[in-house]
Amino acid sequence: MGKNFTKGITFQCTLALIFIVIFGVASYVIFSRGIAHTRANAAQSNTGSSLRMLSQHAAIYSLRLMNSQNKSERKKCRQELLTIAKRIENSHHRLIHGNPGMNFSGKLSPHLQLIYFHPPILLDKQIRDYIAEINALAYDTDSRLIRSNPHFRSILTASTSRLLESLNTVIKEYEKESEAGSTYLYRGGIGVLCFILFTLCMEVLFVFRPIVFRFLRVKNGKGVMNNLAGIQEDSTGQKRMEALVSEAGQKLHAIVHTSPLAIISMDTDRNISSWNMAAERIFGWTEQEVLGFPFPGIFSKMCEDLRILQDRVLQGGLFTGTEVYGIRRDGLPIDMSISMSPLYDGAGNINGIMSLIDDITERKRVVQRFNVRIEVARALAESATPHEAFSKAIQAICEGFTWDLGGIWIVDQQDTVLRCLDIWHLPSVEARKFEMAARETIFSPGVDLLGHVWVSGKSVWISDIIQDAYSLRSGITGEEKFQGAFCFPLKNKNEVLGVMVLFSCEMKQCDNDLLCMMADIGNQIGIGIERKQAEESIKEGAGVNSALLHVAKVIGTILNPDEVLRKIVEIVPRVSDIDRCGILLWDEKQNAFLPAQVWGIEKSLMLDFYQLKFQPGIPMIDLLLNGEIVVVNNAMENAILPKDLVKTFGSKSMIAIPIVSRDKVIGVIGVDRVGTSRPFKEREKIFLQGISHQLAIAIDNARLYREVVDRSIELSQKVETIKIMHEIERSILSALESDEILETSTRMVSKLIPSDRVTIAMIDKEMNAFVYKAGFGIKLTKGSSIPFEDTSATDIIKTRRPTFISDMAIKEKLLPLEEALLYEGYRSQIRVPLIVKDEIIGLLNVGSKRVAAFTPEHLSIIERIADQIAVALENARLVLDLKEMLFGAVKTLSAAIDAKSPWTAGHSERVTKYAVAIGRELGLFENMLKNLELAGLLHDIGKIGTYEIILDKPGGLTDEELKIMREHPSKGVEILVPIKHLREIIPVVKHHHESYDGTGYPEGLKGETIPFLSRILTVADAIDAMGEDRPYRNKKPRDDIVKELKRCSGKQFDPKVIDAFLKVVQKLE
Predict the structure, then answer these.
(1) In CATH terms, are 735-879 and 899-1068 the same topology?
(2) Computed over its alpha carbons, how large is the radius of gyration of the chain?
(3) Topology annotation, domain 259-359
(4) Considering the chain, what percentage of its residues have pLDDT values greater than 90?
């Protein structure tokens, strides 16, 4: 067993020795070249350039060089790598010449420098902590190992003590300052490496690991380098990771290169840095053409929103599925869905934009065309009228297929022509001339583009409508700048019912898919045309029957000719596709047709229409007078209509039917179309003939009825005149106030005579003027004066005769008043003098805004009314004189009563003043104020029989004296009863001492049962009693009086009267 054990040990030692020799040789071969300079970084810190940045740039361009298949990109990468290599060599050169104490030998090629380049490590004051965390060791100037850390030992699988003991090294302390030195690739050092390999073989069963060192030179406090600090890495994992990264990069490159989506990356200046095959297929530019250049013009017609989105992405935003519109290299439009996200560098900063773009042009085209068919079907199914249906269909097709203008022409089976039904265009397209020309143009079979499509039943695509032989009115289309056109038939069971044409302002290449699709849409619209026409025919038939019945009902219920005509012109357009309707009636005096009623005409043409006069000699009028129907389908090219008339009113087609009554043409009913020259159908002619027959009967009946009515009215007017004259006489003669007489007279005149103005002006000789007293219809205020020299009415004073003017506008010279009346619109007037006792005291004026509005009969009526007014005014003057005499007597009597005692002097007048002021505040009428004034003056008339000793007594009254004082209201009544003119004020005088709460005398009336004027006198009497001295007390201040009145409001006094007095007091203040 000992032998076997010895043999085993011997075998193992032999095997170990063999491996030691093998690895020693290998070590010598691999590392014999020593330390080679790989890169230098001599840039100063203030320049901002470092070897770390160079290493990042070199790594990026190295990977791009290895992975790219693009020649241009590979060329660019090589140029950048050469630039970096030169900078590394320059740094290495400066490092060698800047450190003469160091022995550097060898020079690495740029390729090796790029492959093994790593960022340098700065040894600063935290060197111990840093070395403890990385794989590091240190050598002295004699290349002896002086230190290693745990990470390095884990790679070599050897302890620090064994390494240090084997090399007999001593760890030396050094200063804590260092500077960035060079980075080295360590390949030599036989002694050290042999030991490393020996240890490696013994400890890890001879597993070889390539060793890469990065060295930094370390100086002592005197600035002399005394050792090197080296950082060693295990490159096995790194190379394996590099291989995996390379493989992943190749796979990613393949995925990006073959992706169906365009993948494009840009830098922050929006220059393209990557461009895959899908981008080349979608946009038409190759990778060599776009790399390093700004984004090509694929979004040249797109809005600014894309740049805004890119700006947001550069700020960290993310957008997905945004639809944009662009242009390919060949000029074709393209719809895209674009997603964008930011690109980041190793430091986490945004350095570009990544865009994923999907070409959705075909998808949108399919969806769009499907939607067009849906919209056309919906328009045909849901529209109320054919015109509405086809208008919506044109709009849907133009908007869906991006055409600028479209129109539908329908086959007129009666005239065998194509007529324009509707035109639609984009709001941005100015096509007024084309639209007008198209609506006026009628196409015959085989003529022009539409006629050709109508006959052939086949679609036609035109790229250049100016050069094409079939183009629709090529001159006008050229003026409107249309370039492309597409015309297709509208069929139903192989029968062409119409044609649709589309125009574009741009050249459009023929689209076979669209041709096939529009053939189906044409059939769809053709079926819709036939169905809508059938529905419309049924509706029109029902409408015509309903309209004729309605016309018959109107004619049967209306006997006013003007109303009949007005109703007819309103009904006809409801059941016929017309723009305007008018009726002319024959005038025997002027021997012409004159306008009677019209509907649909513009206000600007209304005056021109009513000034028309159609006399014999005009071809159309001669035909109508012979009872013939006149139909004009193209007014501008028809000789029977006056050209100036057609130009003024803009008629395109029209029909005129004579109205015949008792074998005589009494009028004409005519209708026309302005927007289109589409002819009138036979059904419309029959309908209008039926209307004319009924209209003739209605007009004849209405005229007979009018004659009967006119005679009846004339008779009734005479009777009414007599009645009103009696009423005027009774009204004005019974009135006692002059103002009331004048106002009543002006109102009565307007009942008898149709007028717009009735006024009465009185003569003021002192002012030498007329004073406007009553009436209406003039802008003067009542009481205004008009000097004699400012009006022609002054002539009446001299002539004493009335004036009659039928039209003031024909007068050569008008005075200021007449000029003002003419300006207000008055044309005719009558002026009659008011004469009292052979003296002119005023004028009665009647005016109208119509020319020749008055007749001699009217003048006679006005003169009779003027005579009655004069008599009434004279009576009123006499009554006024009597009233003044009465008031004079009452005032004298009142003064006599107050004079019985010096304490009551002026009492009645003051009470009257207070009472009238309160009455005016309460809004009493003038006659009530007059009664209140009389009652105030006579309210104490019963004190005539009262002893002066009682009135002047300084102290309180006894019961007997008080009883005597309370009898004065009743005694006053006894005095006033015999006087007829004062009977209205007797209740007021009797109850002026009643209290609101029922505690007054003589009857103890309460609240509203007390006469209203008595309640006013009660307050006025109390105010004066408290405000004047009495033998038993002094007068009270006004404030105390007000307080007392408020305190007794609702008790002794009526609250409404107190409130009115307080308002009077406020106004006085």
Answers:
(1) no
(2) 61
(3) Beta-Lactamase (3.30.450)
(4) 8
- Is residue 406 a contact partner of residue 501, using CB atoms and an 8 Å limit? yes
> Coil, strand or helix: which one is 1023?
helix
Q: What is the mean pLDDT of residues 832-837?
A: 88
Query: What are 731's two structure tokens?
Result: 């009204």
Per-residue pLDDT tens over the stretch 926-951:
888 988 988 888 887 877 755 555 65
Alpha carbon separation from 568 to 368, 542, 574, 602 (Å, rounded): 49, 18, 10, 19
Task: Write the CB contacts of 574 (distance below 8 Å, at least 6 apart in sequence).
Answer: 543, 547
Residue 351 has pLDDT above 80, yes or no: yes
Whole-number Å distance between alpha carbons of 943 and 437: 105
Q: For residue 717, what is the DSSP state?
A: H
Instruction: State the pLDDT at residue 431.
Output: 80
Whether domain 372-536 has CATH 3.40.50.720: no
CB atoms within 10 A of CB 48: 8
Tell me how long the chain is.
1069
Q: What is the mean pLDDT of residues 725-738?
A: 68
- DSSP, collapsed to helix, strand or coil, labels residue 594 as strand
> At 632, which helix (H) or strand (E)?
strand 630-632
Sign of CA dihedral 555, 559, 560, 561: positive
List the Cα angle 1055/1057/1058 in 5-degree steps. Answer: 65
Closest CA to 917 of 899, 933, 894: 933
Q: Is 444 left (phi over 0), alpha (psi -120 to 50) or beta?
A: beta
| Fold classification of 899-1068 (topology level) | Hypothetical protein af1432 (1.10.3210)
Minimal CA–CA distance to 742: which of 716, 773, 712, 768? 773
C-alpha to C-alpha distance for 735 and 868, rounded to whole angstroms: 12
* CATH (one of 3.40.50.920, 3.40.50.300, 3.30.450.40, 1.10.150.20) for 735-879: 3.30.450.40
| Strand boundaries in 196-318, DSSP class E | 211-219, 225-234, 262-267, 272-275
Instruction: Yes or no: say if 635 and 654 are a contact pair by the CB < 8 Å rule.
Output: yes
3-class SS of residue 966: coil
Our CA angle for 906, 911, 916, nearest 5°, is: 130
Selected residue with higher pLDDT from 29 and 632: 632
Q: What percent of the chain clears pLDDT 70, i.e. is strictly above it?
A: 70
Phi then psi for residue 996, to 5 deg, are -65, -30
Q: Which pLDDT band, with edges at 50, 70 and 90, does 707 fall under? A: confident
User: What's the whole-number mean pLDDT along residues 740-762?
Assistant: 85
**What 8-state DSSP symbol labels residue 507?**
-
Tell me the whole-structure pTM to 2 decimals. Answer: 0.37
Is 558-706 assigned to CATH 3.30.450.40? yes
Strand partners, 833: 843
Percent helix / strand / coil, the chain, rounded to 5: 50, 20, 30
- 12-16, 972-976, 1061-1065, range with the lowest pLDDT: 12-16
Backbone angles phi, psi at 888, to 5 degrees: -60, -45
Domain range list for the chain:
259-359, 372-536, 558-706, 735-879, 899-1068
Among 53-57, 80-84, 182-186, 868-872, whose mean pLDDT is lowest?
182-186
Give the C-alpha separation, 683 to 766, whole Å. Answer: 80
Chain segment 472-487, per-residue pLDDT in tens: 554 455 556 788 888 8
Compute the distance between CA of residue 215 and CA of residue 564 in angstroms, rounded to an integer: 118
> Which strands make up the sheet holding 580-587, listed edge to edge?
592-599, 580-587, 664-673, 653-661, 630-632
Provide the CA 455 distance to its chain's centre, in angstroms: 48
630: β partners: 656
- 3-class SS letters over 267-301: ECCCEEEEECHHHHHHHCCCHHHHCCCECCHHHCC
